[in-house]
Design brief:
Blueprint lengths: L2 E6 L9 E5 L13 E6 L2 E11 L12 E2 L8 H14 L3 H6 L9 E8 L10 H7 L5 E2 H7 L2 H10 L2 E8 L6 E7 L3 H10 L5 H12 L4 E2 H8 L3 H9 L3 E7 L20 H15 L5 E6 L5 H14 L3 E5 L7 H11 L3 E4 L5 H12 L5 E4 L11 E7 L16 H12 L3 E5 L4 H8 L4 E5 L10 E6 H6 L8 H13 L2 E5 L9 E3 L16 E3 L4 E3 L6 E3 L12 E3 L4 H11 L5 E4 L9 H10 L5 E4 L12 E6 L3 H4 L6 H13 L10 E6 L5 H7 L3 H14 L7 E9 L2 H18 L5 E13 L2 E10 L5 H14 L6 E6 L6
Parallel strand pairs: 12-17, 12-18, 13-15, 13-16, 14-15, 16-17, 19-29, 20-27, 20-28, 26-27, 28-29
Antiparallel strand pairs: 1-2, 1-4, 3-4, 3-5, 6-7, 6-8, 9-10, 9-11, 21-25, 22-23, 23-24, 30-32, 30-33, 31-32
This protein binds adenosine-5'-diphosphate and zinc ion (2 copies).
């Protein structure tokens, strides 16, 4: 096998296929599928993935691979196949499908360098440049630009004297630390101690240490322990008694923490009933998808832990996905506490180097369990025994850029390969998953109540229209204000939650709560300040903002939105003595800030925690007895057919934050639409009824889970071009699908212009359309080939966010 097929790191339509390269003599037999290699491509050197080895190629003159980047494959066969599956199902370039499976540190970075061309000679260059290129010198392009000699270089390159090369650079270095160990026998050590001059007491101490400890020890630790110095150790090394050496160590983000080991708890009857089918499926190597439905605190995590235990005992591995914002130290604690060093953790708070180290622990089979956010689904295990997705309804499991995959789909695909179960857990399952469980595609497992039958907190829904009518124009209802004051006096803690997601704003009547909806789509219209207009982002319907509310004729009809900062200011006015911690994107930007603020709150350094959805999860502190939701409506009226579902999920989750321990909790939900079923039912924590109500609406309007969706988004600098291109696509799709499919558009995207590019979309609702994927591919091919048109087309199959 002397030829390698390589997917190159050039994400374009024309290069989205394997290219053949000759394997140079010295690397035959070592280069394998799944390795990264550096190959020449046009004038450049770029990275690629070997996908296949073969003896022959159709191409006559093959170029040679320059060098391998890996000593062993970074993608195993299963992951290479999964890459094909991703490409097919999410309509992405192959190179993206492979890159997404690797830690960022392994993604290629290129440096542009300038050097003498083959035939070039230093003496032919302008004297100003000569010094840079003597002795095969190279000049970094970025540096050259800063020195202001870019144009000069460009001219010489055009003359053929210089050439530009792209050098692939690895972004990570492995981390090394200095260690020390004795290199003589115990007896020789004792003899050496005798010979040490009296004044060299420090040296004697060190040697004595090694009489008791034969193993290597980290230099830093040794110095600290014996209060000695580096030079003392050096002196002993020079006497050939000790050796200093470098050793690779992992960057361990949890280095300075100890995890108290926990033991499996005896399961309750309902936990036992829920876990039995899971264990059964593990035992028999059967692929099956379970939906574990149980409120927060009902004992789901304990079921995860005990299922994993079974998998480990069987010699297999487990992947656990947790939403990024729920991946708190508390969560990590529970897994490390049970399985210790067998756990790797992958989340975005880690540096690229730390992530790379965790990934290598998985690759080297040093761990059995990985706990991580979305991308951990690609953990390079080779003997997976279970995949668990906690809070399976979370939208963050869908990646919003190429490849646009949903971790749940990838989990099921991998679990099929390994014949193992997938366990989805949630207190508020996505409608899709619950519907599948109802149809017995998934197996439903329920945990009906909280552990120890703790009461769910009392929820009060406050009608903000009523507040306004009675003259309260503040963003705090009288009830919420009163309870906040009460908690301050009792020295208990409160959490205030500002439900703010996306940047969309809607038009609402503050007197009666009326929100202007699209007559065709049953989603709210989005307000556009510039034109003073409202628009539907599904179908394109437009309308002016009414001067008076169509329901109650009030003049207080206007667009709606509040920020956390404003709430903080207001709190400062009405409760000046309260200590407030604000958590939003501004205050948690820096690494570790999120965790630090939470720890401060836990330690009682504040009375009120104020934040956006990022505080909805993982907050489990005994002293929280009040949760206030300032405006339940903001998410309800996002131009998204899932708005009700998301509102219900979020309110249920937030309510679950109060009174999780001894002290009973109270929840206040402020809203302008208390009669809306998703708010009312979240108040009663009644998922089942919510599910029934919402399913009726989904069915009526042809939304998932009754219909699938596909979304084409087109952008261009010129509005006319984008509209006419989208129109052509809409017409083309219509010819390719049956009359059971609904093809909507062209309509402006809900963010209608980004970076001076206009954005339009076509939304397809369908049940079974065997030709659709092919038609969508044709569209992509067409527009990607015609790069000069300047159009950008992206296609999202099963979009989660329609904006
Ligand atoms: P969930 O994941 O559904 O929120 P957890 O598994 O975290 O629920 O359980 C909630 C609490 O009950 C935790 O403090 C957990 O340690 C405890 N718990 C869970 N199962 C048991 C059990 N079988 N016996 C005693 N305590 C349990
Ligand atoms: Zn009104
Ligand atoms: Zn509409």
């Amino acid at each position: 096998m002397e030829i390698a097929s390589v997917i190159v790191d050039v994400p374009t339509k024309q290069t989205d296929r394997a290219f053949d390269y000759l394997i140079p003599e010295q690397w035959r037999g070592t280069i394998q599928p799944g390795m990264r290699v550096i190959v020449p491509f046009g004038p450049r050197h770029i990275q690629g993935f070997v996908v296949e080895l073969k003896a022959e190629s159709d191409v006559n003159k093959l170029r040679e691979i320059i060098e391998p980047m890996d000593l062993k494959p970074v993608l195993n066969n299963e992951l290479l196949n999964l890459g094909d599956w991703l490409t097919e199902n999410t309509l992405c370039f192959k190179i993206f499908a492979f890159q997404v499976m690797l830690p960022a540190a392994l993604k290629a970075k290129y440096e542009k360098k300038v050097r003498l061309a083959n035939r070039g000679a230093v003496m032919e260059l302008p004297s100003k440049l000569q010094a840079y290129f003597v002795n095969d010198g190279e000049l970094d392009w970025e540096e050259a630009l800063q020195m202001g000699i870019g144009p000069l270089l460009q001219r010489e390159a055009a003359n053929g004297h210089l050439e530009v090369v792209y050098v692939v650079k690895e972004r990570v270095r492995k981390k090394h630390r200095k260690f020390v160990r004795p290199i003589v026998t115990k007896q020789e050590l004792e003899e050496a101690i005798q010979k040490i001059p009296a004044k060299a007491e420090k040296q004697r101490q060190v040697l004595n240490y090694f009489l008791q400890h034969e193993d290597e020890v980290e230099l830093k630790t040794l110095i600290a322990e014996l209060k000695t110095s580096g030079s003392t150790i050096k002196a002993l090394a020079e006497k050939h008694l000790l050796a200093e050496f470098d050793k690779e160590v992992y960057r361990d983000p949890f280095e300075n923490r100890t995890f108290e080991r926990t033991k499996p708890l005896p399961l309750t009857d309902s936990q036992q009933k829920a876990i039995a089918p899971i264990l059964h499926s593990i035992e028999l190597d059967q692929h099956e998808v379970f939906l574990l439905y149980g409120v927060t605190g009902s004992g789901k995590t304990e079921i995860y832990l005990q299922s994993i235990q079974e998998v480990i005992e069987k010699g297999q591995e487990a992947i656990v996905l947790v939403p990024e914002i729920a991946l708190t130290p508390q969560m990590v604690h529970r897994f490390k506490g049970r399985f210790g060093d067998l756990v790797a953790v992958l989340h975005s708070g880690l540096s690229a180097g730390e992530k790379y180290d965790e990934w290598r622990k998985i690759q080297r089979k040093e761990v059995k369990v990985v706990v991580g956010a979305r991308s951990a689904i690609f953990a390079p295990f080779e003997n997976i025994g279970i995949i668990i997705i906690d809070e399976e309804h979370e939208t963050s499991y869908k990646q919003e850029e190429m490849p646009r995959y949903h971790a749940r789909d990838v989990a099921i695909e991998r679990a099929k390969t390994y014949n193992c179960p997938v366990l989805l857990g949630s207190a508020t399952p996505s409608l899709e998953s619950f519907a599948r469980a109802q149809k017995k595609v998934y197996q439903l497992l329920s945990l009906p109540s909280r552990m120890n039958n703790q009461e769910l907190p009392a929820v009060e829904i406050v009608d903000m229209r009523e507040e306004l009518r009675e003259g309260n124009r503040s963003m705090f209802s009288r009830k919420l204000f009163e309870l906040l004051q009460d908690r301050l006096e009792k020295k208990q803690q409160s959490v205030l939650f500002l439900n703010k997601r996306g940047h969309s704003s809607f038009v609402m009547c503050r007197d009666c709560g009326y929100v202007v909806n699209c007559p065709n789509c049953d989603i709210s219209l989005t307000y556009h300040r510039v034109k003073e207009q409202m628009k539907c982002h599904y179908c394109g319907y437009e309308s002016y903002v009414p001067k008076n509310c169509p329901e109650c004729t009030s003049e207080y009809i206007r667009y709606f939105g509040t920020g956390t900062q404003k709430v903080e200011e207001e709190l400062g006015k009405i409760l000046p003595e309260a200590r407030v911690i604000r958590m939003d994107v501004d205050t948690t930007g820096r690494k570790g800030a999120h965790e630090r603020l939470l720890t401060d709150f836990k330690d009682g350094k504040a009375d009120i925690l104020l934040g956006t959805q990022m505080i909805a999860k993982g907050l489990d502190f005994p002293n929280i007895t009040l949760v206030g939701v300032l405006s339940a409506d903001t998410m309800l009226h996002l131009p998204d057919f899932r708005a009700s579902e998301k509102t219900f999920q979020l309110l249920t989750q937030v309510s679950g934050r109060a009174g999780r321990h001894q002290l009973p909790g109270e929840v206040v939900i402020q809203t302008y639409t208390p009669e809306h079923y998703s708010i009312e039912l979240a108040g009663r924590q009644d998922y089942d009824l919510f599910y029934q109500r919402e399913m009726l609406i989904r069915k009526q309007h042809h939304y998932p889970p009754f219909f699938y969706l596909a979304l084409i988004t087109v952008s261009h600098e010129n509005l006319i071009n984008v509209v006419s291109a989208t129109e052509k696509m809409v017409n083309y799709v219509r010819t390719q699908v049956s009359n059971k499919a609904v093809v909507l558009g062209p309509a402006a995207s809900s963010i209608p212009r980004i970076n001076n590019r206009y954005r339009y979309q076509c939304l397809i609702k369908y049940k079974r359309e065997p030709n659709l994927i092919k038609a969508l591919k044709t569209i992509l091919d067409q527009y990607q080939k015609d790069a000069k048109s300047g159009l950008q087309v992206s296609i999202d199959v099963n979009p989660v966010i329609l904006m």
